[in-house]
Amino acid sequence: MPLVMDADRMSRALTRIAHEILERNRGLDELALVGIRTRGVPLARRLARSLKDINGDEVPTGALDITLYRDDLMRHPVGPQPVVRSTEIPFSIDNRKILLVDDVLYTGRTIRSALDALIDFGRPRAIQLVVLIDRGHRELPIKADYVGKNIPTSRKQSVQVRLLEIDGVDEVVLEGEA
């Protein structure tokens, strides 16, 4: 299993993304972070900490569960009895710039589901996409605004993001045949 990112490289990528967010948005006014469950949530929280360290301002942060919005619900590994987790967005998304955060961008279907779910909570002024890893192979016309690392992969490979908060270690590994 080739190690793509270790804890240090992951931290540097998130810090770089935080600087890019500040530069592109000219500050943090009207911004909020929403992480897609599961691994997008701790990544969003880490970005919020980085943004506060750099700029001094708190950024509202929420968690979005997209289970019931998936277009592959019956074919997905969760099976016919999906585990629905909570969505926690303790602020209005109306007229805000929402930074939607996920760990890996692949086909784009997860992001499409997240956009559908997010719109049910209001009408943001804009939605920007933040991903730690973009592995290509898009099936939908979706592109990330902020990317930690682009990794060329084959469809037979999988990208495993492991986070300290969930898995006890920070790393990104590539599994499977090239």
Write a concise keyword list for the protein shown above.
single chain; about 180 residues; alpha/beta; three-stranded antiparallel β-sheet; 4 helices; 8 strands
Strand order in space, largest sheet: 3-2-4-5-6
Main sheet attributes: strand count, strand direction, barrel closure:
5 strands, parallel
Order of helices and strands: EHEHEEHEEEHE
Query: Count of helices?
Result: 4
Structural class: alpha/beta
Relative helix content: 25-40%
Question: Can you put this structure into words, describing what you see?
Answer:
The chain has helices spanning 7-25, 40-55, 109-119, 164-167; strands at residues 3-5, 31-36, 61-64, 97-105, 126-134, 146-150, 158-162, 171-175. The model has no long low-confidence stretch (mean pLDDT 93). The protein has 178 residues and is an alpha/beta fold. The protein contains four helices and eight strands; from the N terminus they run E-H-E-H-E-E-H-E-E-E-H-E. It has a five-stranded parallel β-sheet, with helices on both faces. Helices cover 28% and strands 26% of the residues.
Summary of the model, kept short:
The protein is of the alpha/beta class and 178 residues long. The chain is built from four helices and eight strands, in the order βαβαββαβββαβ.
